[in-house]
Amino acid sequence: MLMTSFQKSDPSAAPSLMIHFQAYVHGEPLQLNKKYKNPFGEVFELNRFRFYIGKAGPLYTESGFKPTVSTGYQLIDFSDTSSTRIEIPASAGGACNGIQFQLGVDSADQNKGAQSGMLDPAKGMFWTWNSGYLSFKIEGYSPISSQPAHIIAYHIGGYRFPNSTVWNIKINTTNEEVFRITKENRVTVEVPIELDYFFDGPTPLHIKEIPACTIPGPEARNLSENFIASFTGLTLITNK
Amino acid sequence: MKSVTIITGICLGCLLWGLTPFPFRVPEHFPPPVYRFRNNERTKEGFELGRKLFYDGRLSRDGNFPCSSCHQQYAAFATYEHRLSHGFNNQFSFRNAPGLFNLVWQKELNWDGGVNHIEVQPLAPLLDPHEMAEDINHVISQLKKDKIYPTLFNRAFGSPGINSQRILKALAQFTGSLVSADSKYDQVKSGKVRFNTYEQKGYEIFQQKCTRCHQEPLFTDFSYRNTGMATDSSLNDFGRMRITGRKEDSLKFRVPSLRNVFLTFPYGHDGRFATISQVLEHYNSGIIQSSTLDSTLKNGISITNDDRFYLINFLGTLTDSIFIKNPLYSDPETGLRNSAPVDVH
Description:
The structure holds two protein chains of two kinds. Chain A is mainly β. Chain A has helices at residues 107-110, 196-199, 218-229, and strands at 3-8, 16-25, 28-29, 36-37, 43-60, 73-77, 85-89, 95-103, 126-127, 132-141, 151-157, 167-172, 179-180, 185-194, 212-213. Chain A has one domain (3-229). Helix content of chain A is 8%, strand content 40%. In chain A, the strands form two sheets. In chain A, strands 4, 5, 6, 8, 9, 10, 11, 12, 13 and 15 form a ten-stranded mixed sheet that branches. In chain A, strands 1, 2, 3, 7 and 14 form a five-stranded mixed sheet that branches. Chain B folds into two domains: 3-180, Cytochrome c-like domain (Cytochrome Bc1 Complex, Chain D, domain 2, Orthogonal Bundle); 184-319, Orthogonal Bundle (Cytochrome Bc1 Complex, Chain D, domain 2), CATH 1.10.760.10. Chain B has a two-stranded antiparallel sheet. A two-stranded antiparallel ribbon of chain B has the order 3-4. In chain B, α2 packs antiparallel against α6 (149-157), α2 (44-54) packs across α7 (164-175) and α9 crosses α12 (305-315). Chain B is built from 13 helices and six strands. Chain B has helices at 12-17, 44-54, 67-70, 123-127, 136-145, 149-157, 164-175, 184-189, 197-209, 241-244, 276-286, 305-315, 321-324; strands at residues 3-5, 25-27, 86-87, 91-92, 224-225, 253-254. The A-B interface holds A 110-116, 120-122, 126, 128-132, 160, 163, 215-218 and B 39-40, 110, 114-120, 123-124, 126-128, 136-137, 140, 163-165, 168-169, 172, 242-245.
């Protein structure tokens, strides 16, 4: 589903698009530190769920609208709900049928030395012994995990071929429904992340077998594909 | 030594905030560096802040392990006479601490090349639970509480504030400044002095047998190679494979520079060789065959007793006593040490 809503905004403001990332388990909004079962019946709870996105912008259906994308990166962190809503610049007036963004930090931005802001290594999304920013971090507990204290930890990163976990993602509205961004109407789209598919994805993730993945490599790449699968189809439900 | 200034532009910070310019000079016989202090122009204030941080125990969890506990100027910033270095809570480092010099010529850092930029290198030991065992946010809060640091950061960066980026940039201004280019070898190259007969003979043997990997003038080609060392089952260190995940990189480690080699013993990524003689004997008779062994080492390197004698004479000319006695790099509080570091841990 892609949910959008419109609000009157200051006409002098530059046109923009609000993106709201919302995580779900079994169709219910994710709550941290709450017990769930994954599609394989394994009990788990999450206490951390974060990911980097960059280069976000609307997908225009008409030619003549140069796709604009946001600069810099955003750390979406579900322990801080304000971080799950981001505002990005957009060209006004064109018909749009979805959004695009990059998951993770691309190689051009991985080699720039000490960075600040969203890419401050103090945010805990940076590997120090094998330099690089994680694409996403999912942490919590599962009684079935063989790790100490039954921790589950999916610290998924790696930006080098062939095990890159950085992806360009395009999500279209269901039925190609169209929305338009104007100066006057601030469009908000909701991007659901259905975590059931993180487990029941292209590489089935059984917690019993893979309670943790904290190094770059083929497994991390596979789990990043699972993560992408959790960005399910988009439905435009409001267009006033 | 004649030198060429590489920073030709005007330091913006110097104009705006009255910082003291401190241009980095590339030794004449060195190639252009990889790190050029871009977006981190070297100033006297930034360098001195980095130097203070380098010697400050508050960057470690129990206060006992500043950067300088493992990187001692007396040993060309390696750990003097230690296979592995001491770290937090009676632990040891995973690998032998390399000397710190000529780092701005290194594209990647660490024995396995896992660190992709000089500015982020300090995070590895700082967060390693076996080494400094700290947390970057805790370090920031400690420095903010200090009487002097807020002023020093303000001065070095032209505005108030302490964050990880500023700590790392200041440290890079210091560690990037550690240039060793004043050994007898360098003075021979610039025509100031000549090798004696033994050194000259050793240099000729070195050029025949060693320079494929230990290329002049930095005495490394910065490649990763398997030099036929047996794996240590207590360490299980497969080198660069840990970083790339590629089987082809199993047991490969960065070719270390041989500058200051007399000071940086013991040798090897795990410090298993106590003396240069042992290292040379390893190449002569100790190579362990394996699928990723460097192709140039399949038959070892024939090094006779005579070769060894001359080679060691030559390697002695790579000691840079001006570098290890440069007060600019010493502990800003206690000054230069003139004796071997005492093992206090």
